Structure formats: C-alpha cells, structure tokens
C-alpha cells in the first residue's frame, strides 16, 4: 500500500538559496551559474532586458524547472527533496501569463490557493480566502467567471490566489502588468506589507526602489550586479545594460531621491534641469 512520506521539517522563516544554479535549454545556458541568498522577508526585484532569464530563473526558484547544475535550497533543504504539496505550502508563483480558468468564478479561482492546505479546517481556509479577496479588492467580482475579467482584474485575482496559498516565499513575474497607476502602487505596497519573502521580476526600473530592498540584475542568464537599488542602478550600469540614462531627483516628502529613467536622446536636455543629478556610486558587480 502507498504511504505518503512525512513532510521534511523546515524553519518557519526559511531562507532561499541558489547554489551555482544553471539551466540548459536547447543547448543554451539560459540560467548561468547563479548563486543568491535571499533572507526570509526580503523584497527582491529581478531586472534585466528581454530574454535575460528572469522568468526562467523564477521557475527554477519555484522548483518548476530543475537546474541542470547546482541546487536550490529552501531553509537549507534541497527543493528537489520536497513533495509537490510541501513545496506549494512554501512557495507560490504568479506567472506573467496566468492560465485563465475561463468558466471558474473568481471566488473558486482564489480558493484554489488553498489546495496545498487540505488539512486546515474549512472555516480557517475560508477566512484566509476572504482576507486575500479583500486585500486585492475583488469583492465586487466574486461571482464573475474568470474569462469576463479585464487584464488588470485577472492579475489581481492571480495575486489573491497566491496570497490564499499563504506561502513563505512569493514569486511574481511582472506583477504590475495591466494594472492602472493607483492599483499598481497599492499592489506594490501590499506586497511589501505581507511579511514574507517576495521576489518579483520587474520591467519597470522605476518601480524597483519603491518595492525592493535588493535588486538582482540579470544579463544572458548571469547575475551582472546585485545589492541595494540606489547603489546598483548607477548611470554606468543602467546605460551599459539597459541603454537608458538614470537621474536621481529629490522629492520633498521622500527621504530617498527617486530614480527617473530616460532614453539617452530624451535626457540630452536634462543638464538644464537644475534639480536633476546623476549619481554614480560604484555598483556591487559580481563576476
Ligand atoms: N522553452 C524554451 N526553450 C528554449 N529556450 C527558451 C525556452 N523558454 C525560454 N527560452 C529562452 O531562454 C532565454 C530566457 O528567457 P526568459 O523568458 O527567462 O527571459 P526574460 O528575462 O523573462 O524575458 P522577458 O523580459 O522577455 O519576459 C531566452 O533566450 C528565451 O528565448
């Protein structure tokens, strides 16, 4: 008779670690010798040009793609040793293109996040789902089939489903896609208030500072630089890696200068803007 193995004990606040992880796809190293340690509760932005490996690296972190070399560890345990259910109790993923479960009503879609927690009482699970729904402001949409939602509404539903999963580590691929400006700001604030590890691939560099303690810059599957956003997103790095210029501007109500990104042509006239400053701290560049 088949007996399920007992879950492997993990710390309540697990660290996520990539130990020299690589992934080959059709002979190409799309994740290349990545080593990262993400302490519990950190907010990390993954940035890089199109095709630099953000989505693939998230999939490797989630255990959906096994590294061809190296390891992914959660709380010191190799992700490959965890059952699918135990992994899903630890890690939730919001994909860039979530599969739309057309006929499913929003309430049932969000409740799918409880699947790995079948042992929890119905009432407790219902309370978790209800909190996720409220946080993502989905109450008016609960009885709507998923296929009738706008792109931004679907994105909010996908994030609510991931919150209902109560993960220790939340991985998001372009979570602000389709969101209007206000919803985007609210969503980033929500993600930073969850009290769990959040790792998000972001295209919009201007959102990095708002969201992340730490930014990891990818280029051709490698970590090009990582560290505190204002230290890493220097003029030299942004220009060299993204072909853009960065200006740090003071805002009266913010302690930190905010980063504004311009294409080099647009930025030509910026010398005449008196408050604009170009900071050039040295990036913490990894080999
Ligand atoms: N299934 C696959 N088979 C072969 N190559 C793939 C596959 N999926 C992705 N790739 C390649 O891996 C590289 C990294 O792709 P990935 O989607 O991870 O990049 P990304 O940084 O997320 O890109 P984007 O910003 O465009 O979303 C790209 O060169 C891509 O063409």
Automatic annotation (TrEMBL):
SUPFAM superfamilies: P-loop containing nucleoside triphosphate hydrolases (SSF52540). Residues 16-245 form the ABC transporter domain. InterPro entries: AAA+_ATPase, ABC_transporter-like_ATP-bd, ABC_transporter-like_CS, P-loop_NTPase. This is ABC transporter ATP-binding protein. Keywords: ATP-binding, Cell membrane, Membrane, Nucleotide-binding, Transport. It holds the Pfam family ABC_tran. GO terms for molecular function: ATP binding; ATP hydrolysis activity. Belongs to the ABC transporter superfamily. It comes from the Bacteria.
């Amino acid at each position: 008779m088949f007996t399920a193995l007992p879950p492997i004990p993990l710390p309540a606040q697990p660290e996520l670690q990539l130990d020299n992880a690589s992934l080959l796809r059709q002979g190409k190293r799309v994740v290349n010798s990545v080593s990262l340690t993400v302490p519990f509760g950190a907010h990390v932005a993954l940035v890089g040009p199109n095709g630099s490996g953000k989505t693939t690296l998230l999939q490797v972190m989630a255990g959906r793609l096994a590294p061809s070399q190296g390891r992914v560890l959660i709380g010191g345990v190799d992700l490959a040793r965890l059952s699918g259910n135990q992994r899903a109790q630890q890690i939730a993923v919001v994909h860039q293109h979530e599969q739309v479960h057309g006929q499913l009503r929003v309430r049932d879609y969000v409740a799918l996040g409880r699947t790995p927690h079948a042992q929890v009482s119905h009432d407790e699970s219902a309370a978790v789902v209800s909190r996720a729904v409220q946080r993502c402001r989905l109450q008016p949409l609960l009885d709507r089939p998923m296929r009738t939602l706008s792109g931004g509404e679907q994105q909010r539903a996908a994030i609510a489903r991931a919150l209902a999963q109560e993960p220790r580590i939340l991985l998001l691929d372009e979570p602000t896609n389709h969101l209007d400006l206000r919803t985007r700001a609210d969503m980033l604030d929500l993600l930073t208030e969850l009290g769990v590890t959040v790792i998000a691939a972001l295209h919009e560099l201007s959102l990095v500072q708002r969201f992340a303690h730490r930014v990891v810059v990818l280029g051709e599957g490698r970590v090009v630089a990582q560290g505190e956003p204002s230290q890493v997103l220097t003029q030299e790095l942004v220009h060299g890696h993204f072909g853009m210029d960065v200006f740090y501007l003071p805002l009266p109500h913010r302690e930190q200068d905010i980063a504004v990104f311009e294409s080099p042509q647009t930025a030509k006239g910026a010398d005449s803007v008196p408050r604009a400053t170009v900071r050039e701290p040295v990036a913490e560049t990894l080999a």
